[in-house]
Design goal:
By secondary structure, this protein is mostly helical. It has nine helices and three strands. α8 packs across α9.
């Protein structure tokens, strides 16, 4: 009489209540992220459409009002199997599309909970990494706003705010980071009006928190102010309002 083979160490028995036929198989949307399996829309992007993402209309329409209108409405994209997106940061767009297949971004600031990014997976330890992360999250925020991924925007703004805080703290200790600081300023001021004012206030608050180090950052701030007049004016206004608040507190 034939006997059953002994259990293999590489093939553990399924947990109680899970049939052997399903054990080891993954459920959830993550397995379909950028997968040709059941994909019904190919998204091309990049300067000449060289990058490609295998999408699923029902997933994208469930997370994005822009895709809902484009793929489920009267636009030509609704009957297309391929679309091309333009004028986006490639890595940021890739991240946002992938995030659509994952659970909503977590509340609070915990770098270990963030979805992996092309820039870095952990807290920045040097000024270059901090600069890349700040720019990356700002660009992700821009993409999420452009394509109206509504449930991502608040979290991405929070992530960007924390990275700006890290970056300005490190920048205050580096006198040779003016080009990177100016790049961050320009990225912030290029955000759409719906986002710009909130992010600018976050950024100014971050800069104000480094005031004890301004003796070492004065040269950098002056250089950036000369090249970006709007930043200079709004930072000055923010500083004056902050001084008024401090005076009011002392007067109480």
């Amino acid at each position: 009489m034939a006997t059953s083979p002994a259990p293999s160490m590489s093939e553990p028995a399924p947990p109680s209540g899970v049939s052997g036929a399903h054990f080891g198989k993954q459920l959830g949307l993550k397995q379909y992220c950028n997968s040709p399996t059941m994909s019904d829309i190919i998204i091309r992007f990049g300067s000449s459409g060289e990058r490609m993402f295998y999408g699923h209309k029902v997933v994208l329409c469930a997370r994005s009002y822009w895709f809902q209108a484009a793929l489920n409405g009267r636009f030509i994209e609704s009957v297309s199997t391929e679309i091309q997106l333009h004028d986006d940061n490639d890595d940021a767009l890739q991240y946002v599309l992938e995030a659509a297949y994952l659970p909503p971004l977590p509340e609070g600031w915990d770098p270990d909970q963030k979805h992996a990014t092309p820039a870095n997976d952990a807290q920045p330890e040097d000024i270059s990494s901090a600069n890349k992360l700040a720019l990356f999250w700002l660009r992700c925020l821009r993409v999420a706003d452009k394509y109206d991924f509504a449930d991502m925007q608040a979290r991405l703004q929070e992530y960007a705010g924390h990275e700006l805080d890290d970056y300005t703290t490190l920048a205050a200790c580096h006198t040779a980071c003016t080009p990177g600081f100016l790049e961050v300023v320009r990225e912030i001021y290029d955000l759409p009006p719906t986002l710009a004012s909130k992010v600018r206030i976050q950024f100014f608050d971050c800069v104000m928190c480094t005031r004890s180090l301004w003796s070492s950052t004065a040269v950098m701030l002056r250089c950036v102010a000369k090249q970006h007049a709007e930043f200079a004016q709004e930072l000055l206004d923010h500083m004056l309002r902050d001084e008024e608040k401090q005076e009011d507190k002392l007067a109480q």
